[in-house]
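Deliverable D2.4 — example input (structure tokens):
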């Protein structure tokens, strides 16, 4: 550890300072470790709490003392609940509990995470309620990010008119002292573009661009939307419209066009744009080169992918996890699993952290190669590192374990996630329950489903009907009735998810 000390201090003073610094650092590490444990404990207690059978507030009063109610603690607990796909109402209850403590001062991060959890589960009424509450208590916490969270989810789940109405509601009632301008206009456009609703995005642009003068960022948002919709012709037409309107092109503009070509397997056209960037003094970034490495992988040109990876070093950049993931993906696409494994070892040696994409890409390559042992080894490494995979990786692993007669590993994965306070995606439950019921392990299938419902999350009609058949065959009508009642209680308070559970 490097300790910077003024040269005027004598040697004895330096020793005292170094010792003191080490003691302070040791204390800080210990304190951080304790805080991390407290965060995990409280997040797990909240996620495991029976919902909506018992109120959450009394439990919070018992377990959350004023001594641990720091800004970082609250942010981290809500962050864990968000990552664990906890029921949004629980996160909201926790945040409200904290708001009522005089020692706690809310931050935009904690507020935005709570809003995101609610909006993700379509609790829009509660989302508006929370925003109104914050506007009254601490209006400075209402940021562009909170605006973006609500608008993007409303655009995803509700109508074009509902989204415009929400924008107007925020402008007139929630941000009354702020004059909306181009930044807010860009957020509204991004809400539609992120959902690939380009007809609606163009309509908003045509309707409001005279009121909110567009900038290069506005045009890049629309360009990105056309790229995400997969229409390369629309990308190029809109690019020329940008040029015609006199907007200054930047590295983001080029990166979007490069990605559009890469996604279509047109690596040669993407590389021409890459070369053009240097000639127009629009310098590429690590992200630009990462996009090209992905493109080389799509084109199955592994030598070009490696050459582009080396280009990062030539330009005095440092490759990050994203760049390594791009090369890893290229190797996997070329079915070179051995080289991909070597690359992961290199990442570990250089302290480049694995993220979910790293694990997912490598696991997918091993699964496609029918390397059962390799999949199990990497899964165990992931668990040893206490890494929490995202939903699609969990689903992929669950499916692999169940199809390869390793149902115990599927159950182990489920229990690992549950013990971490994580609530798996309902599709994971479908796969696991199917595997358990087909092997006559109905009791375990029932317990997993009960765990899901207790945490305030729906199970699908498919799971219910499967358990219904299995439980009736075993004469377990009481357990079936219990599942039915728990499900009906949830349906009374959860937003509709497009299905209702049938009769018991």
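Example output (designed residues):
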């Amino acid at each position: 550890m490097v300790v910077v000390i003024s040269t005027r201090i004598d040697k004895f003073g330096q020793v005292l300072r170094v010792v003191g610094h080490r003691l302070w650092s040791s204390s800080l590490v210990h304190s951080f470790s304790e805080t991390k444990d407290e965060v995990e404990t409280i997040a797990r207690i909240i996620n495991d709490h029976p919902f909506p059978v018992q109120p959450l507030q009394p439990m919070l009063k018992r377990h959350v003392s004023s001594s641990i109610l720091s800004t970082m603690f609250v942010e981290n607990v809500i962050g864990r609940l968000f990552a664990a796909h906890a029921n949004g109402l629980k996160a909201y209850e926790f945040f409200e509990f904290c708001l009522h403590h005089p020692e706690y001062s809310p931050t935009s991060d904690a507020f935005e995470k709570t809003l995101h959890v609610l909006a993700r589960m379509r609790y829009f009424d509660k989302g508006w309620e929370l925003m109104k509450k914050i506007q009254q208590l601490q209006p400075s916490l209402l940021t562009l990010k909170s605006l973006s969270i609500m608008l993007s989810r409303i655009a995803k789940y509700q109508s074009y008119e509902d989204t415009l109405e929400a924008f107007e509601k925020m402008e007139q009632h929630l941000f009354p002292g702020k004059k909306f301008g181009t930044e807010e206009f860009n957020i509204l456009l991004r809400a539609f573009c992120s959902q690939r609703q380009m007809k609606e995005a163009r309509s908003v642009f045509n309707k409001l661009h005279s009121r909110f003068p567009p900038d290069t960022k506005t045009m890049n948002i629309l360009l990105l939307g056309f790229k995400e919709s997969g229409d390369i012709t629309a990308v190029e037409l809109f690019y020329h419209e940008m040029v015609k309107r006199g907007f200054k092109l930047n590295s983001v503009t080029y990166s979007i066009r490069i990605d559009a070509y890469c996604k279509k397997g047109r690596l040669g056209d993407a590389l021409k744009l890459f070369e053009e960037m240097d000639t127009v003094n629009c310098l590429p970034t690590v992200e630009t080169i990462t996009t090209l490495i992905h493109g080389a992988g799509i084109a199955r040109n592994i030598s070009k992918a490696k050459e582009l990876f080396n280009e990062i070093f030539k330009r005095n950049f440092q490759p990050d996890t994203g760049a390594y993931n791009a090369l890893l993906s290229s190797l996997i696409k070329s079915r070179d699993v051995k080289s991909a494994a070597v690359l992961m070892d290199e990442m570990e040696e250089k302290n480049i952290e694995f993220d979910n994409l790293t694990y997912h890409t490598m696991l997918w390559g091993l699964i496609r190669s029918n390397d059962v042992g390799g999949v199990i080894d990497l899964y165990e490494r992931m668990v040893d590192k206490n890494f929490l995979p995202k939903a699609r990786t969990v689903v992929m692993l669950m499916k692999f374990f169940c199809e390869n007669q390793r149902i115990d590993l599927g159950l182990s994965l489920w229990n690992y996630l549950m013990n971490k306070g994580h609530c798996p995606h309902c599709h994971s439950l479908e796969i696991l329950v199917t595997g358990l019921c087909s092997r006559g392990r109905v009791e375990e299938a029932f317990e997993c489903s009960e765990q899901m419902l207790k945490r305030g999350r729906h199970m699908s009609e498919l799971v219910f009907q499967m358990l219904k058949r299995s439980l009736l065959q075993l004469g377990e009508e009481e357990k079936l009735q219990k599942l039915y009642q728990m499900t009906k209680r949830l349906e009374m308070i959860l937003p509709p998810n497009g299905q209702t559970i049938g009769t018991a």
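The first helix runs from residue 11 to 48.
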